[in-house]
Design brief:
The complex is a heterodimer of chains A (about 270) and B (about 325).
Chain A lengths: L9 H22 L1 H4 L1 H22 L1 E2 L2 E2 H31 L3 H5 L5 H30 L8 H25 L5 H15 L14 H5 L3 H14 L12 H25 L6
Antiparallel strand pairs in A: 1-2
Chain B lengths: L8 E9 L5 E10 L4 E5 L6 H8 L7 E6 L2 E2 L4 H6 L1 E4 L11 H11 L4 H14 L15 H13 L5 E5 L7 H16 L3 E6 L2 H7 L2 E6 L2 E7 H7 L2 E8 L14 E5 L2 E7 L4 H10 L4 E6 L3 H20 L1
Parallel strand pairs in B: 3-8, 3-9, 6-7, 7-8
Antiparallel strand pairs in B: 1-2, 1-4, 4-5, 9-10, 11-13, 11-14, 12-13
The chains are: A mainly alpha (about 270), B alpha/beta (about 325).
The structure holds adenosine-5'-triphosphate and magnesium ion.
Chain lengths: ~270, ~325
C-alpha cells in the first residue's frame, strides 16, 4: 500500500497531474497533425494568395503598407483564434463523448488543473499554427522584421488562452457533435471577419466604429497588428491603444476563466 | 495514517433526484467497515450505479453525507477521491489510446511521478494479463480485456477502497472466475471491496456482507449467511401433461400457473419434492418434466464448456 499523500505535497501532485494532461493533449494534436496543423496552414496560405496577391494588388496600400502586409496580422490572429478554440472544444467534447473525462472527474485533481491542462493543448496548437502561418506570410511580405517579438508573442499567447477557455465552455455545454460547430460558425467567424482583419475599423463610418469596439476580437487583431507592423503603419491605422487592448484581453480571460471554474464546480454538462 | 476505526465507506441519508425528476435514491444508509468485501445487489434501475456515482463524484447528490475512511466528500473531495478506485459499469476510456497510456495517465492524475507510475502500470497490467497488449489500442481489446483494463486503471494508485460496478457483466464464466480470485487476492491484502452484480452466484462466492437496494431504498443489509438462509428457496418449473384445474391448490408452497400447462413452484431447500408430487397427484395433475429455474442458463453453459474441454482432451 502506498503511503497516503500528505497534504503538503498536493501541489506537487497537481503539477504532475497538469503535466500528464499537457503531454496527453500535445501528443494528441501532433498525432493527428493532418487534421490539426495542416488544414489551417493551407487555408491561410490561400487567403494570402487571394486577398493579398490577387485582390490586394488592386487595393494598393492601407495605412502606408501594402494591403497584403496589412492583413497578415489579422489572418494569423484568425488562425490563432480558430485553432485554440477548436482544439479544446473537440478534444474536451470527445473526452466527454467517450466518457474518459470521468478519469479526471474521479481523480483528486482540482478543476483549475483540468481547465489549465486542456487550455495548454489549445495554446500549443494555436502558437504552432500561428508561427507556421507567420512564416508562410513572410514569403508574401516584402519585409521580414517584426516590430516587437515580445508583444506579438504575448498577444498570440493571451488570445490563444482566451479562446481555449471559450472552446472549453462550449464543450461543457455541448450535448452532441453538432453543438461544437455552433459557436465557431455563428459567433467566432462573424466576429473575426468584422474584427478588423481585412480593414481598419477607423475607416468605418459611425455608428459602426463604436459598435466594432464592442467586439473583443478587434482588440486582439489591433494589438497583434501593433506588435508586427507598428514601425511601418501610420498611427491612425492602429484601432485600439495597446495598453487598453492588453487590459481588455486580460479582463476577458479573467472573466471566462472564472466562469469556467464556476461551471466546473457546478458540474454543468459533466456530472449528472 | 488514517485511524482504522473509521468505516471505509459511510453513507448517511443519501438521496438523489435527477434533473428530469427521476428519484433514484430515497435516503439510503450504508456502512462498510474496512477490509470488508461488500456486495450491493438489486434489479435494473434500483440505484446501484447512482450510489456509486455519488461516492466517486460522477453524480451530484441531492442530500445526505458520504465519507470514506472518515474523510467527508463535501469537506475534502480530493482527499476522499484519493482513497477510492473505480471500475465503472460502462467502458469509459479513450478508445484511441493505448492500454499502457491509459493506465499511466490515470497514475499521473493521482499525482504519481513517472517512474513509480511506470512500475505500477506494469505491475497491474501483468496482473490483469494485459502486459502483452500494452501497446494495443484500447478499441482493439475484447470485451473481457476492456473490463480488466478498467480494473488495472482503478488499482494503479493502490486505493484503499475499490468499487466495482458490475465488473463481470458480459464476461465469460472462466474469465469471471479468474476475476473473482483476483478480487479476493486484493481483498486479502487489505483493500476494502464494494461490488455490484446481477449474478447471485458472484455475490455468494465473494461477498461477506450483502445489501440489497430496490427503488432507491435499502431493503436488505445483512451478512451473507443470513441472506442465503432467506434465499434458501428453489423455484422449479413443472411441465404438466394436461391443463391444470383452475382451482389448483398446492398448500404450503408459493406457486403460480404461467400457463395451463406450466406450473412454477417455490420449494424451500429443506423440504422434499415428493411432498409436492403427492399433493399434485391427489389432484390428478401429472408432471411430465421438471427443471430448476434459477441459473438454468448458467449451468447449461458450464456443462457445455466442460464438455468442450473433455472433447479437446480426447482429441489429443
Ligand atoms: N443521468 C440520468 N438521468 C436521469 N435518470 C437517471 C440517470 N441515470 C440513472 N437514472 C435513473 O435512476 C434510476 C437508478 O439508476 P441506476 O443507474 O442507479 O440503476 P442501477 O441499479 O445501477 O441499474 P442497473 O443494474 O441496470 O445498472 C433509474 O430509474 C434510472 O433510469
Ligand atoms: Mg448500474
Amino acid at each position: 500500500m502506498l503511503p497516503n499523500e500528505p497534504s503538503g505535497s498536493s501541489w506537487r501532485a497537481n503539477l504532475i497531474g497538469l503535466q500528464t494532461i499537457v503531454i496527453k493533449e500535445v501528443t494528441r494534436l501532433l498525432r493527428i497533425w493532418p487534421q490539426t496543423i495542416l488544414p489551417p496552414v493551407i487555408t491561410t496560405t490561400l487567403y494570402f494568395i487571394i486577398f493579398g496577391k490577387v485582390i490586394g494588388s488592386r487595393v494598393g496600400t492601407m495605412g502606408g503598407v501594402p494591403y497584403m502586409q496589412f492583413i497578415v496580422p489579422g489572418l494569423v490572429m484568425m488562425s490563432v483564434i480558430n485553432n485554440s478554440y477548436s482544439n479544446v472544444v473537440s478534444s474536451f467534447f470527445s473526452s466527454k463523448f467517450q466518457r474518459n473525462v470521468e478519469e479526471l472527474l474521479v481523480s483528486p485533481l482540482p478543476n483549475s488543473i483540468i481547465l489549465l491542462g486542456y487550455m495548454s493543448g489549445g495554446i500549443a496548437r494555436a502558437l504552432l499554427v500561428g508561427c507556421l502561418v507567420l512564416l508562410v506570410s513572410m514569403l508574401f511580405m516584402q519585409t521580414t522584421t517584426l516590430y516587437s517579438i515580445p508583444i506579438t508573442l504575448a498577444v498570440a499567447f493571451l488570445t490563444a488562452a482566451l479562446f481555449s477557455i471559450g472552446g472549453f465552455l462550449n464543450a461543457m455545454l455541448a450535448r452532441k457533435f453538432d453543438d461544437i460547430a455552433i459557436i465557431p460558425t455563428f459567433v467566432l467567424t462573424p466576429l473575426t471577419y468584422l474584427g478588423g482583419v481585412f480593414y481598419s475599423i477607423t475607416l468605418l463610418p459611425e455608428p459602426w466604429q463604436t459598435i466594432s469596439r464592442c467586439n473583443p476580437i478587434v482588440y486582439m487583431v489591433s494589438a497583434f497588428r501593433y506588435g508586427i507592423l507598428k514601425h511601418q503603419l501610420s498611427s491612425d491605422m492602429i484601432d485600439i491603444e495597446i495598453g487598453l487592448a492588453f487590459a481588455a484581453i486580460g479582463l476577458f480571460i479573467v472573466g471566462l476563466f472564472g466562469l469556467a471554474l464556476w461551471m466546473l464546480k457546478q458540474g454543468i454538462g459533466l456530472r449528472t | 495514517m488514517m485511524p482504522t476505526t473509521n468505516p471505509a465507506l459511510e453513507i448517511r441519508n443519501l438521496s438523489k433526484t435527477y434533473r428530469d425528476g427521476t428519484v433514484a435514491l430515497q435516503g439510503i444508509d450504508l456502512e462498510v467497515p474496512p477490509g470488508e468485501f461488500f456486495g450491493l445487489l438489486g434489479p435494473n434501475g434500483a440505484g446501484k450505479s447512482t450510489t456509486i456515482g455519488i461516492v466517486t463524484s460522477l453524480v451530484t447528490k441531492s442530500a445526505g453525507a458520504v465519507r470514506a475512511f472518515g474523510i467527508d466528500l463535501d469537506h475534502d473531495p480530493a482527499g476522499m477521491k484519493r482513497q477510492i478506485g473505480l471500475v465503472p459499469q460502462e467502458f469509459n476510456f479513450n478508445q484511441f489510446e493505448q492500454v499502457q497510456q491509459i493506465v499511466m495517465q490515470q497514475a499521473g492524475y493521482y499525482g504519481m511521478p513517472r517512474g513509480p507510475a511506470r512500475e505500477q502500470t506494469e505491475k497491474y497490467l501483468r496482473k490483469m494479463g494485459l502486459w502483452e497488449k500494452r501497446q494495443t489500442g484500447a478499441r482493439m481489446l475484447s470485451g473481457g480485456m476492456k473490463r480488466r483494463l478498467m480494473i488495472a486503471r482503478a488499482l494503479v494508485h493502490e486505493p484503499q477502497l475499490l468499487i466495482l460496478d458490475e465488473p463481470t457483466a458480459g464476461v465469460d464464466i472462466e474469465l469471471r472466475r479468474a476475476t473473482w480470485s483476483l478480487l479476493e487476492e486484493i481483498n486479502d491484502q487489505g483493500t476494502t471491496v464494494i461490488l455490484t452484480t446481477h449474478y447471485l452466484e458472484e455475490a455468494e462466492a465473494l461477498c461477506r456482507h450483502i445489501a440489497i437496494i430496490d427503488h432507491g431504498r435499502i431493503v436488505e443489509n445483512t451478512d451473507k449467511k443470513s441472506l442465503l438462509a432467506k434465499l434458501n428457496v428453489e423455484t422449479f418449473v413443472l411441465d404438466l401433461e394436461t391443463a391444470a384445474p383452475e382451482a389448483l391448490l398446492v398448500d404450503g408452497y408459493a406457486h403460480r400457473l404461467v400457463d395451463p400447462l406450466t406450473l412454477e413452484i417455490d420449494v424451500p431447500k429443506e423440504r422434499s419434492l415428493n411432498e409436492v408430487f403427492a399433493i399434485l397427484s391427489r389432484q390428478h395433475v401429472n408432471v411430465l418434466s421438471l427443471r430448476n429455474k434459477a441459473n438454468r442458463l448458467e449451468e447449461l453453459f458450464v456443462n457445455l464448456v466442460e464438455k468442450k474441454g473433455q472433447n479437446a482432451d480426447a482429441a489429443e
